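Hello Y.,

Per our agreement to keep a running log of every chain we model this quarter, I'm adding this entry. I've kept the format consistent with earlier entries: sequence first, then predicted structure.
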Amino acid sequence: MEMHILNSIVVIGSKKGIFMKLYEDCIVKLEYRSSSSPTKKYIGEVLKALKDNHIDAWWSSVVDPVGMPLFPSKIYPAHYPEASKEAFSYLVNGAHDMGIVVMSWYPLNMSKCITDAHPSWRMKFLNYPKINIDKEKAKNYVCFNSPYRDILLEFLKEVIEEFNFDGFIFDGASWSMPPYGNMKGFVPGCCCNFCKERFLKEKGLDIPTKIDWESETFRIWIKWRYEIFMQLWKDIVEAVNSVNPQATVCFNTSNRRYQGNWFSAIPLRCLNLDAVIKAEFNCFYGQADFQMKMLRAMGGKKGFESWLAMCDSSIAWHPGLTIDTLIQAGLGCLSAGGAMSNGSGAPISFAASALGKVRKVLLPRVKYKKGKPIEYAANWISQQTMDYFGHEDVTRQWDFVQGVNELMLQCHLPCEVVFDDHIAKGDFSQYKIVIAGNAVCISKKQAENLEKYVREGGLLILCNKAGTMNEEGIPYRTPILDNLMGIKSRREGKSEHHEILYPTEEKLLKISGGSIGIIPSFEYQDLTIPEAVSRAEIIAKIFEQGKEGIWKERKPDGDGAWFIKVDKGKILYFCADVFEAYLKFPTPGFRRFLEALFCRYTKPSLKLDGPIAVTMNAMWLEEGKVLVHLHNYPGPGYRYPLKYHATVSDIPPVGEMTLQVNIGRVKSAESAISKRKLEVKNYHKIIIPQLNRHDILILDVK
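Predicted structure for the entry above:
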């Protein structure tokens, strides 16, 4: 294989000739595609704008929005009336000549030409009375258990062989139908004859035809879909790479706050897939840090990214989009080790120009985005809890885990994401803290691994109903972790009035701001009213506001939070989900209280003393070299969830901050951007005189 230099871009010689640098190495990526076969004039205008603004990657498409080919395919049974093979040869060759990577967008779950020719291959959605399905749109959705699966793989190979695209972006990469028109939610599943036959063969059961969480068969079907669909993803990667081993496959995971994962059939687990794993901001650009950590945990071997719309209308877009919003989102992704991609329907000159400005900011920083995160705390996102406990209100499940991330960001403590499979395999012992939060559904194997982790010295943080159900949502007679957590007795229910946690220790009370800094109220929320065993160290009591308006302590089972020692480790238990509460009521006193608890029993790997608007991410660049990303990220003041989408606020410089480093002796520290040397005190404390928008510190650690 030959290496060439073209327009200052590294290109690699393949059996088909020259193709560009890898998509995953691109800095700015623009989705800008036509719904019809592109003309020479259209291609010329787009390529000129991309070249003039140094855009690295372009998402075009060989199909229209419902999967109809825009060229005369030898594999698919029909194509667009004005289809042109020459148009895409001209497009790809022209992009490559200008040093631009070009990917083909594809709506994985739709293929109108297939479903028109073979109506029996359409998805047959499970009965879900809550949703009024759009029957015309539904006709375009095709089942992956039908012969479409094999035809799709051949079509993908045809596109790479015929036009030398650099890879595929798979949007609609789910096994469901998203909302349209008056539809209020996703239509799940498929129970067509192909699915029926395969489910019977593999599970010996009749496939469910309606949503029924009380049915054991339905629960089995949920897991079965995950396995079938993820195998398809692997087969897609293999098919594309069989034609061009360097081609990139990128999947949109569709995992976001308002969508239940079981609808999509995309599990939150470590996939270890030779692909780029992608998500969408859904306009909350402040989700960058959280999404990067979630996608990294999914194990996309070629990287991960989030997509942000560059539009000014509708519920799905940003109002008043600014260049600063794009820059801040891009820096948020980069700081956490990932990348941003963008889509636009605006004139190409505007979209390309905007991303050109983003590129100037990201360019000197991209070489510092890769590294191994420094591990301190793990945020457990439990798919099984989302599926089997929270399926009716999955937004709350997302709030639980998003609240953890927001809290840790604002406490300036390193935090990564783990999933159910990490806990089941015991792949989390490297973390000093595991925040299970309100992980309701916990298997016996996971419980065993959590207990082992604590006994060997870890700090496990649990809330409310944690461990009350097994991995399929079946209630345990006695919650599986109650003995470990030191719960003597418990009763469940919603608070009838305001409930608060009030620190019992004078020091913690002062940290939280005194009597006016009490931990936020839990009004009409799920609570566990527990009584702790005598050896537990009570740190907060439950107080309730009676009908007469007077606060009083719940007795005798009003122990609101406590630590309990288990061999070398400890458990911290809260009677309510304090992380969801923090997301909704991020009071300074609450943050200081929780931060003090974390740091009391663990020594943070790194700890920044600075305002909450500054986010910190740290990673090992190599042995002895540490990168610390500091991002001045004020946002609109209340990043997530926002009732209305918002653009970035002013970004005032931040004054002097101190970074405490506890992973070794710091020999020297400097800014990777300005090359300025920083003062290091006593080998562990770094003085940062000022932060503007973003900086990267390089630490030489012995």
